[in-house]
């Protein structure tokens, strides 16, 4: 292209498309008959007009070269930055092979250098954010602002071809930075379309960022050209309406955050356009025409404003009804007051307030409720005092919210509304009466905001109202009278101490809170009518209330605390009510969100098909052998027929026996061998789960193949569906077999002990005395459903006794078997592995499991484990439980470890570490359902562990801190644990859930439940009766007495066998009493009757030895053969059998 042609092109560019010549004019110009000066006069810039005119000279010799023109027009037509920066910078984009994403990344990296080079700081809006488009004329005088148009063109040329998410976000950031230095018409004409284009992008982050960038850029527009007067109602808002229903929450959040600013900007655009039209000079109009034009513009403004309101109202209503609460919360927090100004009082009340009220119905989202009370002040202030009747129930609901921070936000909103004078006097009195009790609330924020509300109410009332109305309500909560009720610091320092947090939380969770409050009210009435100096005589509380009151007393409750609780009575009841309703609604929502579908309630009828889960094979993996045996015995040979296990529809789907003879996996492999490579792609995650089988994109089988189900399949999709069904059935069969194994393991009849006779009571008659052990017997174990029992001793031996053979008197009373292969003393023992083995542990750190051979006297060790006494500590207690999946031997050590050893594998199943601060573990027991475990310690603590999560969930400390000797799970009370502690022959039943002591057996001369006095005697062993027979307990201990405790009839309790060293016959009785909410069965010594001595009466026969024990009774058990007998063992190595 030569210089003349370039001049023609430039002329057409700067004259809005008018060429300087047509063909005839060009011929005339060549002959000197035509001059293009009329066309050039349309170019406003004089220097540019002269420059283009020089390029169009007819004589080529008069024209300059391109290089000469650049040099001559420097700082005239061509700005200085073209030579120093812009030309070389843009040239790099033309010469280098860069993708659009790379170009945008390069621009984002260099944007600060570009602005520094092209825009002078004194003209930059970035230097002064308050400068808007009013400075457009000055900016046009700044050459750098015009130079940015080239950068804008370079940026926008890449936008539609961007691919990466990061590049699109960088492009939006560039547009936001460039608009700070561009004129308003450039923003509206050149950038706005691309922002709206990115609002429809496939990436949610880009769409959200586009909405934010659009809002930020439009706020910079301060003058609107006439051509863009209706840009909001006709272009911007219609392209944003679909965002209110965008699939991505983040995009709807972005619109909710910016909708108020957009509405404000749209209104400003409308006002600027109207003012420009009204203020346009027109001298030809008369005064009458001017008034008519004013009315015309006024009517046009109202109609356009109405249309704008309708569009914004539609968007706001959709956002306020959004399914996600975070969108509603964002709208409340980011511009609800601006929307009130935009809509006006009437629509703010009808549209905004009516929607906001529904937010309080959401019991799950506390943040949404808190945002409501944050924003209600601004809305109410704009609507006015007319909304105060609506606000009262809303504020009352906020005061009874289940979340304390919502209550504090409610109080703060009430304070601000009272300061604005939006409450009438009567409403102030009612809200104050309802709020004043919160001065006793344990939350510090709530107390401070309550004081702030009281002070705000004081400022709104007259002096007479304060003295007659407000002070009488406030005075009971103050330590001393206050004069300056309007000073928050003074009132707050004078308020009584609040309720303790632990007491407040306990009261809210209490099921029988109304009954407790009624009882406390009766006690308060008695205190008010009693004479000064006389203690009130309270009536006895109910059993359950007594334990609750005792718990509150342990938390520090006094009579003054009772008055504070009664002052907060209404608040406590409301909180409990709302918590209960919130939990019920939460359960309902959880059920709805659980993904379960009730087929019976579907409107479309669903045809149900069934299959039998009791099949001998799950896919190609056989069931466990023992489970197959049970299934075959239960179902017989019919289970082998597949036609029996499936109905007709499923038989057609799965085919015949031959079609299903091979596994689905093998037939899938066969199918894929005959299919083209990559035709079918089956995704299966894990051995026990079947995920969706998704066919690949290139699935296009040319011919149908025979699927593993035995039917013709036209595509790999049907094959995948059948594979999913097979895998689902396999999974369900495996789960059923696993659950059945666990169920039958827990319901195994061989593990259940024979029920004792319902009216059986031991008479205390000694029938056998055996003394084979040379050391103290530590543990006695009766093997259920057999006539065997075992004892372990400090002499390192374990002896097995067959009481059935001894009872027949065919042989002498001797042990049947002796196992003495342990190092050290055998300290504990338990029955395990289906009652066929014994697990024993010694103080040398050895744990062994040996099998009890019924047909032989030999013993076989099946499992063994050695512990380091110095590192692990010796074992103090053993227990075994079989879950069906695991056979766990749990043992506790002196160093605080409770270890679960799976006897079916060499590894450790679990390990619990007790806190050393709780003391040394002395005993532990396991819940029959294997859900929790309780261990007793030397410091008198009962620590409860959750076996599912292996975490400590509760700790109970004995009031006296006495050592726990033994613990047993109560067979009847679900969360009850019996604990025998050191001193006073005390055994107590503790509720591990409520930490309450429910029952105590007390065989001591000291007053029951005393903590400062104790006899040296303790209970070492307990036997609890099974659930089937009446509840009773056998105990034995250091006083060498065996006692029978009858729980239903305490007066029927008695001493089964006394100590051998007793020289007097002990006459005792038993009584039951309720002490501090605990039912106590106490042994009372009446008198002694002296035994007949040999000196007083001549002996005719040799004196019989004493029947009782001569040493501490270490363990007890009950064994059944032809009769029911009690077996006892003592520290001197003696075993006695009683009936």
Automatic annotation (TrEMBL):
Composition bias, Low complexity: 661-676
BP GO annotations: late endosome to vacuole transport; macroautophagy; protein targeting to vacuole
Repeat positions for WD: 770-802, 1030-1049, 1106-1139
Transmembrane regions listed in the UniProt entry: none
Skewed-composition ranges (Basic and acidic residues): 1093-1102
Cited InterPro entries: 2AA_helical (IPR055231), ARM-like (IPR011989), ARM-type_fold (IPR016024), HEAT_type_2 (IPR021133), Kinase-like_dom_sf (IPR011009), Prot_kinase_dom (IPR000719), Vps15-like (IPR045162), WD40/YVTN_repeat-like_dom_sf (IPR015943)
Compartments, record wording: Cytoplasmic vesicle, Autophagosome
Protein's name according to its UniProt entry: non-specific serine/threonine protein kinase
Gene3D superfamilies: Leucine-rich Repeat Variant, Transferase(Phosphotransferase) domain 1, YVTN repeat-like/Quinoprotein amine dehydrogenase
GO cellular component entries: autophagosome; late endosome; nucleus-vacuole junction; phosphatidylinositol 3-kinase complex, class III, type I; phosphatidylinositol 3-kinase complex, class III, type II
Pfam families documented for this protein: VPS15-like_hel, WD40
SUPFAM superfamilies to which the protein is assigned, alphabetical: ARM repeat, Protein kinase-like (PK-like), WD40 repeat-like
Region annotation (Disordered) ranges: 277-296, 624-706, 1088-1107
Sequence ranges assigned to domain Protein kinase in this UniProt record: 1-86
Enzyme class, spelled out: transferase
Keyword tags: ATP-binding, Kinase, Nucleotide-binding, Repeat, Serine/threonine-protein kinase, Transferase, WD repeat
HEAT repeat coordinates: 191-223, 236-266
Coiled-coil parts of chain: none
Annotated GO MF terms: ATP binding; protein serine/threonine kinase activity
Enzyme Commission number(s) of this protein: 2.7.11.1
């Amino acid at each position: 292209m030569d210089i003349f042609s370039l001049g023609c092109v430039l002329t057409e560019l700067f004259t809005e498309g008018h060429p300087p010549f047509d063909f005839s004019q060009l011929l005339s110009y060549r002959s000197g008959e035509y001059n293009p000066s009329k066309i050039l006069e349309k170019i406003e810039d004089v220097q540019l007009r002269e420059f283009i005119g020089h390029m169009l000279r007819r004589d080529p010799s008069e024209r300059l070269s391109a290089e000469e023109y650049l040099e001559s027009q420097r700082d005239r037509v061509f700005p200085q930055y073209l030579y120093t920066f812009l030309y070389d910078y843009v040239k790099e984009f033309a010469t280098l092979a860069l993708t659009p994403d790379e170009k945008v990344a390069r621009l984002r990296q260099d944007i600060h250098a570009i602005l520094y080079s092209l825009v002078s700081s004194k003209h930059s809006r970035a230097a002064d954010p308050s400068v808007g488009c009013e400075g457009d004329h000055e900016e046009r005088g700044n050459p750098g602002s015009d130079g940015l148009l080239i950068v804008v063109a370079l940026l926008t040329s890449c936008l539609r071809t961007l691919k990466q998410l990061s590049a699109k976000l960088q492009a939006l950031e560039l547009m936001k930075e460039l608009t700070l230095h561009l004129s308003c018409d450039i923003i509206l004409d050149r950038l706005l379309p691309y922002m709206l284009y990115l609002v429809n992008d496939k990436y949610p982050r880009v769409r959200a960022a586009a909405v934010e960038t659009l809002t930020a850029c439009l706020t910079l527009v301060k003058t609107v050209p006439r051509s863009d007067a209706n840009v909001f109602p006709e272009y911007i808002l219609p392209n944003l309406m679909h965002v209110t229903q965008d699939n991505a929450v983040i995009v709807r959040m972005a619109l909710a955050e910016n909708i108020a600013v957009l509405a404000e900007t749209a209104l400003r655009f409308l006002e600027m356009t109207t003012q420009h039209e009204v203020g346009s000079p027109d001298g030809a109009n008369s005064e009458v025409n001017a008034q008519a034009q004013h009315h015309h513009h006024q009517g046009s403004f109202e109609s356009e404003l109405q249309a704008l309101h309708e569009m914004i109202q539609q968007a706001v209503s959709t956002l306020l009804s959004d399914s996600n609460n975070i969108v509603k919360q964002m709208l409340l927090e980011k511009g609800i007051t601006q929307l009130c100004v935009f809509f006006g009082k009437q629509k703010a009340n009808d549209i905004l307030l009516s929607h906001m009220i529904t937010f309080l119905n959401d019991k799950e989202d506390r943040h949404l409720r808190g945002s409501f009370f944050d924003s209600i002040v601004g809305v109410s202030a704009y609507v006015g005092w007319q909304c105060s009747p609506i606000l009262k129930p809303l504020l009352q609901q906020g005061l009874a919210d289940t979340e304390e921070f919502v209550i504090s936000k409610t109080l703060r909103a009430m304070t601000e509304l009272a300061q604005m004078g939006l409450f009438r006097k009567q409403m102030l009195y009612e809200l104050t009466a309802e709020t004043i009790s919160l001065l006793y609330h344990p939350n510090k924020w709530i107390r401070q905001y309550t004081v702030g509300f009281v002070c705000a109410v004081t400022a709104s009332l007259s002096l007479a109202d304060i003295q007659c109305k407000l002070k009488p309500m406030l005075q009971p909560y103050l330590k001393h009278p206050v004069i300056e009720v309007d000073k928050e610091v003074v009132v707050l320092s004078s308020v009584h101490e609040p309720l303790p947090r632990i007491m407040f939380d306990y009261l809210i969770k209490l099921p029988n809170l109304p009954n407790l409050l009624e009882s406390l009210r009766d006690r308060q009435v008695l205190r008010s009518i009693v004479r000064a100096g006389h203690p009130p005589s309270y009536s006895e509380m109910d059993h359950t209330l007594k334990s609750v009151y005792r718990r509150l007393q342990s938390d520090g409750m006094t009579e003054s605390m009772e008055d504070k609780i009664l002052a907060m009575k209404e608040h406590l009841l409301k909180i409990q009510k709302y918590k209960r309703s919130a939990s019920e609604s939460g359960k309902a929502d959880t059920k709805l969100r659980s993904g379960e579908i009730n087929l019976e309630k579907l409107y479309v009828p669903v045809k149900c098909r069934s299959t039998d889960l009791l099949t001998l094979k799950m896919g190609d993996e056989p069931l466990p052998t023992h489970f197959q045996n049970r299934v075959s015995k239960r179902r017989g040979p019919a289970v082998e027929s597949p036609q029996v296990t499936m109905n007709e529809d499923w038989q057609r789907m799965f085919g015949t026996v031959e079609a299903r003879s091979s596994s689905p996996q093998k037939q899938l492999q066969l199918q894929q061998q005959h299919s083209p490579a990559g035709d079918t792609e089956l995704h299966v995650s894990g051995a026990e789960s079947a995920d969706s089988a998704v066919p690949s994109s290139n699935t296009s089988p040319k011919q149908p193949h025979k699927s593993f189900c035995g039917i013709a399949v036209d595509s790999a999709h049907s094959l995948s569906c059948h594979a999913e069904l097979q895998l689902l059935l396999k999974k369900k069969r495996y789960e059923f077999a696993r659950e059945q194994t666990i169920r039958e393991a827990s319901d195994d009849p061989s593990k259940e002990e024979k029920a004792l006779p319902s009216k059986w009571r031991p008479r205390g008659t000694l029938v056998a005395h055996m003394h084979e052990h040379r050391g103290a017997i530590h543990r006695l174990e009766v093997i259920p459903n057999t006539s065997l029992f075992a004892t372990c001793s400090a002499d390192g031996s374990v002896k097995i006794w067959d009481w059935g053979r001894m009872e027949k008197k065919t042989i002498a009373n001797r042990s049947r078997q002796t196992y003495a292969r342990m190092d050290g003393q055998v300290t504990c023992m338990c029955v395990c592995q289906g009652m066929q083995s014994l697990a024993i542990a010694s103080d040398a750190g050895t744990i062994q499991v040996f099998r009890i051979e019924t047909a032989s006297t030999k013993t076989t060790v099946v499992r063994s484990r050695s512990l380091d006494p110095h590192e692990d500590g010796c074992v103090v207690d053993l227990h075994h439980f079989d879950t069906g999946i695991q056979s766990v031997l749990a043992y506790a050590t002196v160093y605080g470890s409770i270890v679960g050893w799976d006897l079916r594998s060499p590894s450790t199943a679990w390990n619990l570490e007790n806190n050393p601060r709780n003391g040394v573990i002395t005993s532990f027991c396991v819940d029959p359902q294997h859900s929790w475990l309780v261990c007793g310690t030397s410091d008198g603590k009962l620590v409860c562990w959750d076996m599912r999560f292996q975490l400590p969930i509760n700790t109970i400390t004995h009031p006296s801190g006495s050592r726990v000797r033994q613990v047993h799970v109560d067979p009847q009370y679900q969360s009850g644990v019996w604990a025998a502690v050191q001193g006073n022959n005390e055994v107590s039943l503790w509720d591990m859930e409520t930490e309450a002591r429910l029952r105590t057996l007390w065989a001591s001369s000291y007053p029951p439940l005393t903590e400062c006095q104790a006899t040296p005697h303790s209970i070492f062993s307990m036997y609890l009766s099974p659930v089937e027979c009446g509840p009773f307990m056998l105990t034995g201990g250091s006083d060498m007495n065996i006692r029978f405790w009858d729980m239903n009839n305490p007066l029927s309790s008695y001493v089964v066998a006394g100590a051998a060293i007793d020289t007097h016959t002990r006459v005792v009785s038993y009584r039951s009493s309720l002490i501090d909410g605990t039912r106590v069965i106490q042994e009372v010594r009446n008198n002694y009757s002296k035994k007949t001595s040999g000196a007083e009466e001549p002996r005719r026969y040799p004196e019989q030895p004493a029947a009782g024990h001569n040493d501490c009774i270490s363990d007890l058990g009950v064994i059944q053969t032809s009769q029911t007998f009690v077996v006892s063992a003592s520290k001197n190595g003696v075993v006695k059998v009683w009936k």
